[in-house]
Design a protein that fits this description.
Elements lengths: L1 E12 L5 E9 L6 E11 L1 E8 L5 E7 L5 E12 L5 E3 L21 H13 L5 H15 L13 H7 L4 H14 L4 E8 L6 E2 L3 E8 L3 E5 L11 E7 L2 H4 L2 E6 L4 E10 L1
Antiparallel strand pairs: 1-6, 1-14, 2-5, 2-13, 3-6, 4-5, 7-11, 8-10, 8-12, 9-14, 10-11
Helix pairs in contact: 1-4, 2-4, 3-4
Length: about 270
């Protein structure tokens, strides 16, 4: 399948920007499940200084906002050929060793709610193979945390989302990472795009998890949609949690308030 993406992010400021540097993680790379045919980044009110690979192997563009800018637009577009590998990405090829992905973060640190989820999985799912066991974990998470927008923010932790019993794909992924690591599986966060078959304009980018399984390598699990990623998915970045995969991170001086407008289109 060939998927065409157009993703625009516009920042509008109340005061002129004195200085700003941003790391942009919006460039996908070819893998077992995707081949990048074309990909472009277009900047208005900013310029790109360098493109580099971060510690997780993600392609990152370092951009600087123009001095005095009151609006900055970052637009990426391209064509990606995708293949349904049933979520299997394969061997570990990153700089970070596998044991690194057993490490919990501030967003995934388990509390009583996650530990109860893990205890239930250990008690009930030990007779299953690894793939079945993690799909069952995904089902348990979605049962406990129905998909509901507007209830969490980017800093909501796995424990908080599980306790309040509501969240979105980011929360589902953090809970999965927290529990999978406690069960002994190296696990990582994936940000990207998902083509919804009933629309071209997408509400937001997407997130899912990958766990490393002996004999298979990295395997994807999309808790929010109760499946492993197929040909409708494009991966952008990977890391320990959302912070490692955020579309933009950096610092800004001069502006007192920011208005953000995002438009994402994904179509076959």
């Amino acid at each position: 399948m060939q998927l065409r993406v157009h993703h625009s992010t516009q920042y509008v400021y109340t005061d002129p920007v004195n200085y700003a540097l941003q790391q942009v993680r919006l460039t996908p790379q070819s893998s077992a499940s995707q081949k990048i045919m074309t990909w472009h980044i277009h900047l208005e009110g900013a310029e790109r200084h360098v493109q580099f690979h971060d510690a997780h192997g993600n392609l990152v563009d370092l951009i600087e906002f123009s001095t005095g800018a009151e609006a900055v637009t970052v637009t990426v577009s391209g064509l990606v050929e995708t293949t349904n590998t049933h979520g299997v990405i394969g061997a570990h090829k990153m700089m970070m060793p596998l044991w690194f992905f057993l490490r919990q973060t501030a967003l995934t640190t388990p509390g009583q709610a996650v530990e109860a989820l893990v205890a239930k999985a250990r008690l009930a799912d030990n007779g299953l193979d690894d793939v079945q066991r993690l799909h069952r974990l995904s089902e348990r998470i979605l049962e406990a945390v129905p998909y509901m927008i507007g209830q969490t923010i980017s800093t909501t932790t796995a424990e908080e989302a599980l306790r309040q019993a509501s969240g979105v794909c980011q929360d589902h992924t953090h809970i999965f990472l927290s529990a999978a690591r406690r069960l002994g599986y190296p696990a990582r966060y994936v940000s990207g795009y998902l083509m919804m078959t009933d629309r071209i304009d997408q509400e937001a980018s997407h997130a899912w998890a990958e766990a490393y399984l002996e004999g298979l390598g990295w395997v994807g699990f999309d808790v929010s949609n109760a499946i492993s990623p197929d040909e409708k998915y494009i991966a952008l970045a990977r890391g320990l949690d959302y912070k490692d995969c955020a579309p933009t991170t950096g610092f800004l001086r001069g502006a007192t308030a920011e208005n953000l407008v995002v438009s994402i289109q994904v179509q076959q």
